[in-house]
Design brief:
β4 and β5 form a beta hairpin. The chain has no helices and 11 strands. By secondary structure, the protein is mostly beta strands. Strands 2, 4, 5, 6, 9, 10 and 11 form a 7-stranded mixed β-sheet that branches.
Length: about 120
């Protein structure tokens, strides 16, 4: 399974960015797919994900400002609005699921990360 992120970049406070993540490979049972932040010296933080029931789950800072949805096949999109400097960081796409066959051990897969910078 490979996850390829796109859409990061620089934006001014109050602006918007749209991150996309394309998944290739075969996940036969997906438990969640979404976005996390991993800042130096800090624990990995949930930004937003979609669980196995199709319900969006959001970290505290994302709630009310970000949306997460499936776009094109095998693509998940994070739409970020009203960005502020605290949103600066590297955003990672993640899928947690079973690869290749039912009953395979579920595990996390991660993308390479995409930088989001919010600055005046």
């Amino acid at each position: 399974v490979q996850l390829t992120e796109s859409g990061g970049g620089s934006v001014q406070p109050g602006g918007s960015l749209r991150l996309s993540c394309l998944m290739t490979g075969e996940i036969v049972q997906m438990y969640s797919m979404g976005w996390y932040r991993r800042d130096p010296g800090k624990e990995t933080e949930l930004v937003a994900r979609i669980n196995s029931r199709g319900v969006g789950e959001f970290g505290g800072r994302a709630r009310g400002r970000f949306t997460v949805s499936f776009g094109d096949p095998n693509t998940i999109v994070l739409q970020m609005r009203s960005l502020d400097k605290e949103d600066t960081g590297v955003y990672y796409c993640n899928v947690f699921g079973e690869e290749g066959r039912r009953g395979a051990p579920a595990r996390d897969y991660w993308g390479q990360g995409t930088q989001v910078t919010v600055a005046s």
